């Protein structure tokens, strides 16, 4: 992305995906920035970026992923990455976490992690049930739903067992995921 003239993020990881090219000379990275650009260009149907639910969801999802890091991270290289990317991922994450991914998994992926993530999953379920579901705004799809479904699809791609366990813990997530199946049909790239 740097080769396209895209400036690195001011905070966190310098370059992230997804990234979007608009016209021949403008690039945007970061899902929310892309959503804002799309909302400006195509305001109907709305993504409801001004919904008070969105900041709550944006806080909860990283909390879930962080809490489940020991169960999720070690499965990424063999499940999602080619060999050279897997090697890079393992090396950089070992530096980031101060231990190899296998050790991270051994120490942080058991029942304790699930006990810690259960109230967080339930908090997300509460948001989905508040307006009658299956979506955060009831029958209306919003960007908040896309954030949740994206995280759920990520978990499912890493490990069907992890996905199914999360669905059993919080059934509202399963209802949202099932209601969103049409957007997940093309999952080949």
Describe this structure in words.
By secondary structure, this protein is mainly alpha-helical. The protein starts with 18 loop residues before the first strand and ends in a 10-residue tail after the last helix. The chain is built from 10 helices and 2 strands, in the order E-E-H-H-H-H-H-H-H-H-H-H. A hairpin with a 3-residue loop joins strand 1 and strand 2. Strands 1-2 form a two-stranded antiparallel ribbon.
Task: Spell out the key features of this protein.
189 residues, mainly alpha, two-stranded antiparallel ribbon, globular
Tell me the overall shape. globular
- Strand order across the biggest sheet? 1-2
Low-confidence segments, given as residue ranges, are none
End-to-end gap? 19 Å
Radius of gyration: 18 Å
Sequence of secondary-structure elements:
EEHHHHHHHHHH
Helix run count: 10
Major sheet: 2 strands, antiparallel
Would you summarize the structure shown here?
The chain is mostly helical and 189 residues long. Helices cover 60% and strands 4% of the residues. α2 (53-67) packs antiparallel against α7 and α2 (53-67) packs parallel to α8.
Secondary structure topology:
Layout lengths: L18 E4 L3 E4 L1 H11 L11 H15 L1 H4 L3 H5 L2 H15 L3 H8 L2 H20 L12 H16 L1 H10 L1 H9 L10
Antiparallel strand pairs: 1-2
Helix pairs in contact: 2-7, 2-8, 7-10, 8-9, 9-10
């Amino acid at each position: 992305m740097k080769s396209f003239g895209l400036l690195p993020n001011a905070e966190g990881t310098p370059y992230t995906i997804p990234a979007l090219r608009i016209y021949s000379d403008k690039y945007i990275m970061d899902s929310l920035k892309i959503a804002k650009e799309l909302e400006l260009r195509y305001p109907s149907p709305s993504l409801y970026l001004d919904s008070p639910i969105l900041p709550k969801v944006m806080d909860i999802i990283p909390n879930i992923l962080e809490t489940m890091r020991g169960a999720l991270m070690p499965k990424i290289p063999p499940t999602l990455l080619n060999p050279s990317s897997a090697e890079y991922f393992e090396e950089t994450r070992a530096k980031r976490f101060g231990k190899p991914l296998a050790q991270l998994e051994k120490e942080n992926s058991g029942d304790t992690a699930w006990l810690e993530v259960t109230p967080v999953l339930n908090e997300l379920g509460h948001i989905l049930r508040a307006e009658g579901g299956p979506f955060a705004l009831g029958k209306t799809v919003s960007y908040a739903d896309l954030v949740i479904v994206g995280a759920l699809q990520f978990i499912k791609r890493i490990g069907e067992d992890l996905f199914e366990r999360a669905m059993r813990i919080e059934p509202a997530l399963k209802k949202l995921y099932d209601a969103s199946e049409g957007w997940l049909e093309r999952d080949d790239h």
